[in-house]
Amino acid sequence: MKISITLGCQKCGNHDISTPGGSKNAIVTCNSCQVTLGKWGDIQAAALRELTRIIKESLKDVNVI
Known about the structure:
Blueprint (H helix, E strand, L loop, with lengths): L16 E2 L8 E4 L5 E4 H20 L6
Antiparallel strand pairs: 1-2, 2-3
């Protein structure tokens, strides 16, 4: 199973985002419209929640024999 999560700006839709330093407290910004998207750690946590939801949804009809 291959699952992709695309991170992008909720304001302009651009996927070109900046994570200076990459620490969990780094502020993520859109490189197109310069809007602040939040802290990198919060964005990672939201992506993990979305991945968990997708996996649970895809497995709900699986029968293990």
